[in-house]
Structures are given as structure tokens and as C-alpha cells.
Amino acid sequence: MDKFPMTAAGHNALEEELKRRQQVERPRIIQAIAEARSHGDLSENAEYHAAKEAQSLNEGRIAELEDKLSRAEVIDVSKLSGTTIMFGATVTLVDEDTEEKKTYQIVGESEADVKAGRVSITSPTARALIGKKIGDSVEVNTPGGGKSYEILNVAFQ
Description:
Elements: E1 4-7, H1 8-37, H2 46-71, E2 72-75, E3 90-95, E4 101-107, E5 118-120, H3 124-129, E6 137-142, E7 145-155
Parallel strand pairs: 1-2, 4-5
Antiparallel strand pairs: 3-4, 3-7, 6-7
Helix pairs in contact: 1-2
Pfam families: GreA_GreB, GreA_GreB_N
Family: Belongs to the GreA/GreB family.
InterPro entries: GreA/GreB_C_sf, TF_GreA/GreB_CS, Tscrpt_elong_fac_GreA, Tscrpt_elong_fac_GreA/B, Tscrpt_elong_fac_GreA/B_C, Tscrpt_elong_fac_GreA/B_fam, Tscrpt_elong_fac_GreA/B_N, Tscrpt_elong_fac_GreA/B_N_sf
């Protein structure tokens, strides 16, 4: 049973989703199943089958969230410091070809959202950045091809 890193914010978000699914979604789905049952013949009752499908998906996600939370190694990024890139670092890069600046925070897999500037620790970008320092040049092999970046700043927020 491997532990995996996660920021405190990511952990809180998963806990909130779990709580919502258990305390709001689960009772709503149970009510929908009960209502659909009251309509009679279950073999041709689309509402009943849709509610049972929703229940299955919700319970599967609850189990997944409980597993992730039980194996999470929460890392308080605000207590980290230094100039070497590691988990939790917020890194400012400049594309060496287009001079475009990008800022990414390296986070756990479940909290990654590239559009919001959070990349997974297992992503090609994060793997290329780990262990590097300000001023280093990195080559990132992405599915869209290779990119070269220079590291402008490393912060822990």
C-alpha cells in the first residue's frame, strides 16, 4: 500500500467531496430509488435503472476517495523552502523558443489541473523539473513534442 504525496489543500478538497457524496448525494439517490420503486414494474422502469446506475457510480467514487485519503501523505507546502524544485514548489518558467512565461505548482495526481497551473508530480513536466534550481535549463518531453524551459523562480506558498 503505497503512500502518495498531496498538498493540504488537495486533501481538504477530497475530504469535502467525500463528505458531499456521503451526506448529500447518497440520501438523494436513495430517495430517487425509493420513488422509482413506487412506480411499479422495475424491469421497464428507466428512472429506477438510472437511479441504481447513479448509486453505483457514487458508491464507487466514495470508495475511491476513501482509498486516496487513507493513502495520502499530506505535505504542508508552507513549511518547505529552498531553491531546489521538489513536491509543492511553485515554479516560474520561460519557454526558450517563444519567451512565454508559465507558472506551475507541482502537486499530487488527484489535484492536478494544468489550466489552473497545477501539474502532477508524475507528469513529464514535473519529472523534468524535480531537483533543478533557478537558472537551470530543462528539456521536457511532452506528447506534443519537446520543449525547452529556463527556470526563473522557485517558491513555496
